């Protein structure tokens, strides 16, 4: 996978041929994603016109693919029968792909079938590469289930065969119908909701409702709106008001029937009552008179009214074909959406809880609850109604445990795919927060406590940096305070075990103390807990609901950091051009510090000066002074060991253009404060690997004193005959069942592991795992070698090792990064975690492998 990449555009004489090639490619892409064959030609012309409006300097293929993905997102339920595909097995693969949600389907088509690089696929779908790979993992799992394939290699082969079949397809040139109606080979994915009463009843009811309102609002009052023939430009007319009032009546009736409810049941919802009240207010005499000269504003308010009464699914559909929306309108949309789904969630959970005994403990249909009804033959009428109308609710099953199968959360996938929300600066964060909310109930956690680190990080980002004062933001404040309260003074059985705070909660508290507003709450608690063996804290007992919001307000005012450990230092943001830099600013300090290595001399010195002091000592070939500028840590060797192996690091003024420190780069790590200078390099490839000696972290632990964080770093650029020889010796020792020297370098251990995999010597490979990692079978290692391209050394470009204990637990965190370059000049990184064991450096394997 990932063998293709976006080709470089040729010169002008080749552009015509390239466009012909791309037309065929993009038409096949549309067909792969469910579009009818006879609609793909007009589809390409539409996206060609869309792409012409983008920056012409952007790669043509990228522009066209982005436009194609955006256009396909307007019709997420497209589904064709694959009849143009020659082989039955490939048609089955094609149909399995179309059963995926649109975002996973497009990601799978680009990456798994068509073989594009993950970077290109992520660019097309406008996602982070990490998010793209999450979609690919989900798609792989679902495809394997639908195609009944257990071997990942077999699934890969199926996708490769499908690619060949797709390339053989000859798509017709005729245009699609102009009304954009689905063609014969497009099959609906969802049943159309039943309408309980004939359509003529809906029209009569709407006219009756309209007549009543018109009678009371207009005929008995002297005010009236102008007609179309009487109105000037921009005025609200009688016909427009009538039409918009009828739109509301139709939308209300449609929403009720899509939910499968009778009037009394539907009207009992607070959001429905609010919408009806808002509608009466909007169409009364005074409001119409107020809007008579501003038809556009009245139409906007009517649009919001339709949002209020629609089902959650209907709300999303109302935006599918609309264009750009201002941020405040989108905020209002989300506010209404979440308020509505909160109420529908409570309603649905009530039904599920009262029918919980009928819900199967496990079923593949929990992802498509409409099909769940087939497994519940004796379902009650209310449960049957709920499951039949499920897509309208905007909900999904949480499936926490068999005792709480009735719990739900919001399904925001549809909204995330809408282009309006992809351009909103904060919509993704809001959607992610509400996606799994609530995070706990009266019985305890509904998510793993470690998940709350990302949750609170997102909340703080919104509450501190989001500039608006929307209702959404107010809701996040409530969520934030509830969550902080729950992790400190919530259910006792979730926090304590045998009278002491659980280890996972201790780690959670220390991790969250990396954020200043939470550190202000948690640091006193942690100190007192540690002194008492994690059993009691007066600060925790005195904590009151609302205290965390007080700390948050101080943070917004810029008054909080000075109250925290190592938080009251003055930092001067600075960018230094290194073109004519000669270390004059630190020479006098260097002379004094070199004599005594007294750390007190460094108190109050700016972090950038400590950085230059370190590199000036390197420039002067003075490893002893460099050593004394390093923070003490478990990894830091003795002075004698450091001096024995010391080699100069690259000369800063020769390798870098400029260096900068910024206030925004400061990061709290429990009680420490860290900042990492930004460096611009003269050579673009100098700093590609993580083990980078020109960007050490600077740490403030106490007394306003910055020091350089010690990191164990090793780097090898292939070919490296010396490393190869050492790695082979280590491999041979292990093959002869002999012990390795404990000081064997991590790069040598890595080379031995790669050679063991290459030789399929599973015993040696397993011997290089840490005690915490389980031994693996031959199939695992073969899959590992194939999936991660570690078999063989012909493509190996470099290896970089880095180990540090700059984290909340002061534990050693080590990893090795391997870079491969294929014959297509593509880069592939392999990232492996390592740990320091009593026997030396060994590997840790996680389920992701």
Automatic annotation (TrEMBL):
Q: What species is this protein from?
A: Planococcus plakortidis
Instruction: Name the source's superkingdom.
Output: Bacteria
Q: What is this protein called?
A: Uncharacterized protein
Query: What are the TM regions of this chain, as residue ranges?
Result: 199-220
What keywords sit in the KW lines?
Answer: Coiled coil, Membrane, Transmembrane, Transmembrane helix
**Top-level taxonomy:** Bacteria, Bacillati, Bacillota, Bacilli, Bacillales
Annotated region described as Disordered, given as residue ranges:
171-190
Coiled-coil segments, which residues?
Answer: 234-261
């Amino acid at each position: 996978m990932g063998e293709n990449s976006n080709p470089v555009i040729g010169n002008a004489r080749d552009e015509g041929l390239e466009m012909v090639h791309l037309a065929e490619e993009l038409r096949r892409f549309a067909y792969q994603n469910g579009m009818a064959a006879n609609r793909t030609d007009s589809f390409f012309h539409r996206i060609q016109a869309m792409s012409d409006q983008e920056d012409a300097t952007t790669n043509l293929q990228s522009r066209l693919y982005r436009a194609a993905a955006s256009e396909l997102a307007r019709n997420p339920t497209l589904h064709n029968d694959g009849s143009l595909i020659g082989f039955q097995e490939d048609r089955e693969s094609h149909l399995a792909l179309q059963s995926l949600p649109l975002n996973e389907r497009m990601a799978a088509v680009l990456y798994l079938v068509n073989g594009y690089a993950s970077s290109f696929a992520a660019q097309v779908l406008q996602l982070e590469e990490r998010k793209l790979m999450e979609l690919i993992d989900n798609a792989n799992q679902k495809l394997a289930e639908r195609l009944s394939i257990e071997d990942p290699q077999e699934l890969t082969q199926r996708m490769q065969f499908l690619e060949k079949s797709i390339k053989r397809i000859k798509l017709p040139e005729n245009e699609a119908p102009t009304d954009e109606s689905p063609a014969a080979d497009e099959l609906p994915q969802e049943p159309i909701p039943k309408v309980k009463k004939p359509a003529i009843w809906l029209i009569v009811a709407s006219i009756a409702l309209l007549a009543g309102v018109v009678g009371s609002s207009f005929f008995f009052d002297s005010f009236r709106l102008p007609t179309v023939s009487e109105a000037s430009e921009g005025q609200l007319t009688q016909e427009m008001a009538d039409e918009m009032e009828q739109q509301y009546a139709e939308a209300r009736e449609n929403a009720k029937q899509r939910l499968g409810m009778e009037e009394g049941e539907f009207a009992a919802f607070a959001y429905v009552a609010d919408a009806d009240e808002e509608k009466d207010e909007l169409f009364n005499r005074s409001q119409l008179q107020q809007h008579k000269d501003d038809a556009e504003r009245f139409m906007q308010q009517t649009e919001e009214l339709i949002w209020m009464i629609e089902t959650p699914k209907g709300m999303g559909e109302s935006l599918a074909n609309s264009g750009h929306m201002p941020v405040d309108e989108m905020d209002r949309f989300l506010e209404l959406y979440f308020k509505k789904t909160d109420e529908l969630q409570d309603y649905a959970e009530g039904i599920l809880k009262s029918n919980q005994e009928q819900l199967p403990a496990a079923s593949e249909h929990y992802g498509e609850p409409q099909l769940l009804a087939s497994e519940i033959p004796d379902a009650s009428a209310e449960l049957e109604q709920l499951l039949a109308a499920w897509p309208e609710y905007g909900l999904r099953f949480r499936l926490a445990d068999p005792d709480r199968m009735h719990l739900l959360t919001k399904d925001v996938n549809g909204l995330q795919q809408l282009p309006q929300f992809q351009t909103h600066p904060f919509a993704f964060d809001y959607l992610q927060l509400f996606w799994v909310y609530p995070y706990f109930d009266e019985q305890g956690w509904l998510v793993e406590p470690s998940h709350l680190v990302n949750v609170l990080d997102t909340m703080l980002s919104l509450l501190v940096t989001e500039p608006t004062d929307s209702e959404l933001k107010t809701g996040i404040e409530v969520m934030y305070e509830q969550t902080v309260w729950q992790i400190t003074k919530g259910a006792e059985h979730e926090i304590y075990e045998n009278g002491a705070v659980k280890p996972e909660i201790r780690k959670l508290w220390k991790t969250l103390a990396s954020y200043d507003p939470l550190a202000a709450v948690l640091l006193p608690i942690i100190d007192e807990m540690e002194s008492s063996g994690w059993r009691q804290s007066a600060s925790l007992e005195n904590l009151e609901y609302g205290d965390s919001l007080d700390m948050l307000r101080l943070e917004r005012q810029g008054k909080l950091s000075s109250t925290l450990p190592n938080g009251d230092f003055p930092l001067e943001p600075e960018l230094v051009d290194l073109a004519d830099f000669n270390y004059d600013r630190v020479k006098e300090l260097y002379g004094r510090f070199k004599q005594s290595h007294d750390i007190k001399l460094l108190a109050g010195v700016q972090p950038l000066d400590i950085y230059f002091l370190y590199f000036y000592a390197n420039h002067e070939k003075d490893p002893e002074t460099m050593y004394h500028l390093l923070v003490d840590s478990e990894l830091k060797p003795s002075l004698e060991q450091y001096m024995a192996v010391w080699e100069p690091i690259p000369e800063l003024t020769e390798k870098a253009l400029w260096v900068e420190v910024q206030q925004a780069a400061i990061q709290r790590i429990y009680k420490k404060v860290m900042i990492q200078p930004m460096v611009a390099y003269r050579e673009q490839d100098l700093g590609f690997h993580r083990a980078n000696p020109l960007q050490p972290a600077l740490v403030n632990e106490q007394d306003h004193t910055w020091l350089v964080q010690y990191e164990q770093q090793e780097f090898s650029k292939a070919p490296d005959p010396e490393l190869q020889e050492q790695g082979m010796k280590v491999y041979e020792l292990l093959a002869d069942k002999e012990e390795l020297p404990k000081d064997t370098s991590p790069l040598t251990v890595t080379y031995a592991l790669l050679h063991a995999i290459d030789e399929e010597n599973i015993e040696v490979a397993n011997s290089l795992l840490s005690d915490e990692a389980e031994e693996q079978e031959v199939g695992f290692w073969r899959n590992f070698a194939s999936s991660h391209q570690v078999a063989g050394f012909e493509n190996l470009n470099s290896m970089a090792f880095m180990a540090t204990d700059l984290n909340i637990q002061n534990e050693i965190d080590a990893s090795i990064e391997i870079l491969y370059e294929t014959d297509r000049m593509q880069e592939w990184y392999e990232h492996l975690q390592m740990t320091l064991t009593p026997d030396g450096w060994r590997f840790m394997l996680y389920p992701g492998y």
